[in-house]
Amino acid sequence: MSLPFTATRAILRKREGLEHPDGEIESLVSGLLDGSVADYQMTAWMMAVFFKGMTVGETTRLTRAMLGSGSELPSWGGGSRIVDKHSTGGVGDKISLIVAPIVAACGLRVPMISGRSLGHTGGTLDKLESIPGYTVHLEPARFMRIVDTVGCSIAGASQEIVPADRRMYALRDVAGIVESVPLIVSSILSKKAAAKLDGLVFDVKVGSGGFSSDRERARLLGQRLVETGTLLGMRCEALLTWMEEPLGAAAGNGLEAAESIRFLRGESVAGDLIEVTYEVAAAMLRVSGAEAEDDARLRVRDAVQSGRALERFEAMVRAQGGDTGVIDDPDVLSTAPIRLEVHSPEPGFVQGVRARAVGEIVVDLGGGRLKADDSVDPGVGVWFHARSGDPVEKGSILAEIHARDLSEARTAASRLLAAYEFGPAAPVRVPLVLETIVPDPSATAADESMRPSR
Amino acid sequence: MSLPFTATRAILRKREGLEHPDGEIESLVSGLLDGSVADYQMTAWMMAVFFKGMTVGETTRLTRAMLGSGSELPSWGGGSRIVDKHSTGGVGDKISLIVAPIVAACGLRVPMISGRSLGHTGGTLDKLESIPGYTVHLEPARFMRIVDTVGCSIAGASQEIVPADRRMYALRDVAGIVESVPLIVSSILSKKAAAKLDGLVFDVKVGSGGFSSDRERARLLGQRLVETGTLLGMRCEALLTWMEEPLGAAAGNGLEAAESIRFLRGESVAGDLIEVTYEVAAAMLRVSGAEAEDDARLRVRDAVQSGRALERFEAMVRAQGGDTGVIDDPDVLSTAPIRLEVHSPEPGFVQGVRARAVGEIVVDLGGGRLKADDSVDPGVGVWFHARSGDPVEKGSILAEIHARDLSEARTAASRLLAAYEFGPAAPVRVPLVLETIVPDPSATAADESMRPSR
Fold first, then answer.
1. How many CB atoms lie under 10 A from the CB of residue A327?
2. Which of A123, A106, A74 is nearest to A284 (CA)?
C-alpha cells in the first residue's frame, strides 16, 4: 500500500467495506501485541468486520498473522498423518474423547488441543479432568511425544500458542463481537494450525443447543472454515450436525467421560452418539488423504469392535497421569452425592429434550462455567433414560439428576421436566449429519469476493 | 429494563439494531467517565451506532447524558433571548465572527462557544486569536458577563463543559467513527445545550469543502440536529448551504478576521459571504422567537448599515483583551512576510475554485492543523481577486498568496492554480442557501423510528 499503516486508516477501510491491502491486517495484529494498536481500535475494527465481513483471503491472512504471534509446535517427525477435529460446541458432545483414540487406532496421529466449557456448552478438557490424575497441562515436547507413541493426546493450549487469539477473544467477549464468522474462523484455525495438521474436520452444530439455529449461517461458517483451512494447507471437511437435543445419554463432565468409555468398550450406547461419532471419525480418516469413503467407515467400526480404540484411550490416560481404573469401572466417575429420578407425567412418546435448557441445567448444577475462571464439579449432570422417539408410561424414569444436594437436584428436575416435550406418536427421525462440506475444487481467487459475515 | 446494565449487553443490543431502554445510554456515558465501561467497549458500541443508527429519542438521551457529565453554565439572568449558531465547518467560513455582533446589535444575547480548525476547515477561535491580545480563554462567569453587557462573546469551551464529549470524540477520531450522524448530533448539541440557549441555528455545509457532498446525508444531519435540539428545548433551524468554493474573498485566519471587520464596516464584500451571513443572522433572529421572516432580514441589514454591529464587535474585542486598533486598520492582520500573486493562464470566466483544495493549501501554508495540538500561523492564507462568475484576461490577478517564505508561496500558487476551473462563459449562479429545515410540527414519538445513520 502507498500510505504508511495506521490503525485508524485500517478501521475506516473495513468500515467502508473495502478489502485490506497486504500487510494491513498483519500490522493490526502485531500492533495489538506491541501496544501500537490500542484495544479500543481493535474492537472498533472487529465491530466493522462484524458488519462488513472479510474475504477468505483476508481471513487467511488474519489467521496467519495470529498464528505468527505465537510459537507453533515444532515439525512432526515422519510417520503417519496428523489430523484433528473441532466442534463448535454442543450439549453432551463428548465426541472428541471417543474419536481421538479411534483415529489413533486407525494408524493416524491426533494432537488434539481442546478447550473448556463456557456457557451452556461443555468442554473436552473438563470431561477428561474428571478422570482422577489426568492432566491437560503438557509441555509441547511431552504432548508431541505422547502423540507419537500413543497416537493421540488431548490437552490444553499453552499460553504461548497464539497470544493474539487470547487477546482478541477476550476483547470480543466483553465488546459484543463474538458472533462474527471471519473472526470465529480465524480464532479456531489459528489454534488448530499451530499444531501443523495435515487434515482437519469441523463439526458445526446446527440448532438452539449449538452454534446457530440458522442452517444457512451454520453452512456459511462450515464453508468458510473449509475454504480458509484449505488455503492454510490443510485438507478439510465440515459436517453440519443437528444439536437440538443433547448428544448421547449423558450431560455433565464425569458422566460424559463414563459414557465415552462405555462407547469404546463396545457397550450399549445411544444411537445418536454412534451416528455422529462414526461420521466424524470417518471424516478424519478421509482428510488424512488415505481413505475412500466406505473404507473409512469400516475401519472406524473395526477400531472400536476390536478393542484397539479402547486400548489407545487407556494408553493416553496412562501417559497423561490418569487413573486407568476408570476404564474397567466407569461408574466411579459418578461421584455426585445426590441422585434424583425424573418421572414422566404422562404416557406417550418423547418428542425432544431441549439441548440448550439441559446445558443451562448442568451449569447451574455446578458442572459448567458462566465465567472463564469458574470451577466445575466433575460429578454433577444428567443421565437420560428416555429421549426423543422413546415411548414412556406415566411414571417412567425419564432421567436421573446427579447433584451436590437435594435442593439443587429438585430445581434441576423441575427444569428438566419443562425441557421435555411429549406427544401421542413417535416423532419422525431425522439424520443428525445434515450435510458434509468439502473444498470446492473450482474455487479460485475470484471467489474470494466480499461477503458480509451475516 | 429487567436485567442489570452491562456494557456488553448494551453493545449487543445496538449491534442487533434494537433501541436502548431508558437508562442504558446514560449508564454507558457515566461508565465511560467512572471507568466501569472500557474505552474498547465504547468504541465497539459507537461503531455499532455507526452501522445501526439511533432514533431521535436515543440521540436526545445520549446528548442529555453527555451534558450531565459536565457543568453547564449557570442560568442566564432575565432579559433578551439567548441564541447561537453552529457551522459544520467550511473553507473561508468566517460567518460566526460577523453574525455574533449583528445579532447582539439586534438586541439578543449570543454566548458562542466555538472550536479550532482541524483538517481543511477553519476554526473561529483561530481567526479571532489573530487579533493581538484577544483571548478565547474565559472563565464561565466572565464569559457570561461579557454576553450580558456586550451582547455577544466568542470563546473556547472550558475543560469541564461536557467531558464525555471530549472523551468520546477523542476515541471516535482514532477509531474511525467520526462520520456517524447521531454521534455528530450529540457531540454538537451537548456543547451547545450547556450554554442554556433559547434558540440555535445550524449551518450544514453541503459540498466537497463541507460536511458532505451528498445532499441527502447533509439534509439528514440537518433534520436530526433540528429534531434533537427541539426535544432538548431549543427553537432550532438548519440551513443547508453550498460549500464547493471558499466563502468570501479570504481563506486564512488573519485574512478572514480582516474580511469580517470589513464586512461589519460596510465596505465592499464578496456577495456570497453577504448572502449566507444575512441568512444565518436572520435565522438566529427567527429562532429567538421574536421575529417574522421579513422583519428579521431588515433588522440584520440595518444592524450592519447603522454601524451598531461593528460597535458590538469592537466592544467584544475590547472586553476580551484584544487590540481594537485592528478595527480601524484591518490590514495590520496581514502579517505574512511574502505575498505572491497568482495570474490567470487564459482568458475566460472562472467556473469555480475547489474549496477543499484551498483548505488544504492554507493548512500547508501553516494556517491550519492536521493534529489537534499543531500551532497555526495567523498571517498566512489566500486572498481571492477572482472567483466563480468573474471574467478574467490572460495575466489577470486571480489571487494573492500570503506565506512565510517564497518556496511555500510558490508551491501554494501552483496548487491554487490547479484548483481553479475556467470556461468560455459565466457559470449559472446558484443560490448558496439550498434549503431551510424547521421543526416538523406534526412530529410525534412515532416518528422516532430507527433509521440508519447513513
1. 18
2. A106
Tell me the pLDDT tens digit for each residue of A214-264. 999 999 999 999 999 999 999 999 999 999 999 999 999 999 999 999 999
Helix (H, G, I), strand (E, B) or coil at A352: strand
Q: B217 catalytic, yes or no?
A: no
Cβ <8 Å between A176 and B50: no
Partner residue facing A176 (CB), from B8, B51, B173: B8
Query: What distance in Å separates residue B406's CA from the closest CA in chain A?
Result: 28
Is A180 an 8 Å CB contact of chain B?
no
Cβ neighbours of residue A348 under 8 Å, at least 6 residues apart? Answer: A391, A392, A422, A423, A424
Residue numbers in B near A175 (CB within 8 A): 8, 11, 40-41, 44
User: Is A17 an interface residue toward B (CB < 8 Å)?
Assistant: no
**Residue A24 to residue A4: CA distance in whole angstroms:** 9
Crossing angle (nearest 10°) for helices B163-174 and A7-15 = 80
B40 → closest Cβ in A40, A48, A51:
A40
Residues of chain A falling short of pLDDT 50: 1, 444-454
Q: Any catalytic annotation for residue B187?
A: yes
CB under 8 Å, gap of 24 or more: what pairs does B31-36 form? B31/B5, B31/B7, B32/B164, B32/B167, B32/B168, B33/B69, B33/B163, B33/B164, B33/B167, B36/B7
For A270-307, give the DSSP string: -HHHHHHHHHHHHHHHHHTT---HHHHHHHHHHHHHTS
**Over 70: is that where the pLDDT of B18 sits?**
yes
Q: CA dist B13 to A16, A184, A287, B35, Å?
A: 22, 20, 40, 21
CA distance A119 to A368: 7
How far is it, in rounded angstroms, from Cα A97 to Cα A239? 18
At B12 the three-state DSSP class reads: helix
B322 near B133, Cβ under 8 Å?
Answer: yes
